[in-house]
Amino acid sequence: MWSNSWRLPVNSTGSNLPELPATPEIGLPLWLLAELTYRCPLQCPYCSNPLDFAQQGQELTTEQWKQVMRQAREMGAAQLGFSGGEPLVRQDLAELIGEARSLGYYTNLITSGIGLSEAKIEAFKQAGLDHIQISFQASDEEVNNLLAGSRKAFAQKLEMARAVKAHGYPMVLNFVTHRHNIDQIDRIIELCVALEADFVELATCQFYGWAHLNRAGLLPTRAQLERAERITNEYRARFEAEGRKVKLIFVTPDYYEERPKACMNSWGNIFLTVTPDGTALPCHGARQLPIAFPNVREHSLQHIWYDSFGFNRFRGYEWMPEPCRSCDEKEKDFGGCRCQAFMLTGDAAQADPVCSKSPHHGVILAAREEAEHATAPLSDLSYRNERNSRLIARG
Ligand code: SF4
Ligand code: SF4
């Protein structure tokens, strides 16, 4: 029997350190992200997969994934995302969806649409899939296909977006925006309207994995970002006036914020990611941290979530150095993102440098400044493919 009242030790009094709020109770792993595979036919230069994905271990078997889903459900997981890589390359996807449905999950397939077909959509529907999200690289066929590394990608995505809608799913489209496509935001929104999308996620690139490697070529300027947000707001107002239901979600990149996001709603609190080889992570970017995260092949999820070092490392407030430790905003953002702190300062316990109170905030200001002068063409980006991944892994 698991216990959700397990607590980390609270701050002892008597030290010169500021008194900390009581460490919150550990939440339930409500969201399970199943990264079924790192295989993918596309090569997005902003992919959040690890740079060395090609060197990662063997994928979990169908039965091992079913065990993960069962254990997580017993612990309270309610939402299950099938992601990757491209989850459609797994031949057992319909079987896994069926298992998830029988366990009572709300399921979401996060896909590029490549490898999807009418027959698969039908099979997934029969298996009980609740939700499909298709990602696009751009509204323009040439840019989309260049970024994706496939001459057929755009046409296939359009066809599958229409097919998903025709099968009665809510249409959810995701566009990762960056300096090479954000100026087409109006065309992106128009395309989504033409495809009868119900939800549109305009997610400005966040700089993890391959996006971090390519940051100088992807970070938009402030002017680009402000224009895109203004146009998105104009469309929102127009849709509301016309009584249209399409919902536009605009995600600003951390690099243009002064406070960090409450990453994953705090470490090990709601989100549980399991990677293709069974490594369990508190967020999908955490693999890069110098922490030996546990593997579902060796440990139960119960142990992983409540007792493992990796999942407890940044829970609560005790781990925080200054300026977070005595900051009155720490219960709001938990010091920001541990991966971003590690990538930008070399120390995962630092305040997220996005925060203007961080002594390392200068790296963010420098990146913004660099974006003002960047000229890198699309062809200079480092694309996410097996060859590049192996080269990077070899150093
Ligand atoms: S971001 Fe692009 S390359 Fe990465 S998994 Fe998704 S479709 Fe594949
Ligand atoms: S100092 Fe730390 S806790 Fe305070 S706002 Fe910045 S990141 Fe958040």
TrEMBL record:
Taxonomic source organism: Pseudomonas typographi
Annotated family: Belongs to the radical SAM superfamily. PqqE family.
Positions annotated to bind [4Fe-4S] cluster: 40, 44, 47
EC number from the UniProt entry: 1.21.98.4
Domain Radical SAM core per the UniProt entry, residue ranges: 26-241
Its biological purpose: Catalyzes the cross-linking of a glutamate residue and a tyrosine residue in the PqqA protein as part of the biosynthesis of pyrroloquinoline quinone (PQQ).
Entry's cofactor comment: Binds 1 [4Fe-4S] cluster. The cluster is coordinated with 3 cysteines and an exchangeable S-adenosyl-L-methionine.
Keywords on record: 4Fe-4S, Iron, Iron-sulfur, Metal-binding, Oxidoreductase, PQQ biosynthesis, S-adenosyl-L-methionine
Reaction catalysed by this enzyme: [PQQ precursor protein] + S-adenosyl-L-methionine = E-Y cross-linked-[PQQ precursor protein] + 5'-deoxyadenosine + L-methionine + H(+)
SMART domains registered for this protein in UniProt: Elp3 (SM00729)
Protein's gene: pqqE
Pathway field: Cofactor biosynthesis; pyrroloquinoline quinone biosynthesis
Name assigned to this protein: PqqA peptide cyclase
Cofactor(s) the protein requires to work: [4Fe-4S] cluster
Keyword Repressor belongs to the record: no
Regions that span the bilayer: none
Keyword Amino-acid biosynthesis included in the entry's annotation: no
PANTHER family: PQQA PEPTIDE CYCLASE, RADICAL SAM DOMAIN PROTEIN
Enzyme type, top EC level: oxidoreductase
Subunit structure: Interacts with PqqD. The interaction is necessary for activity of PqqE.
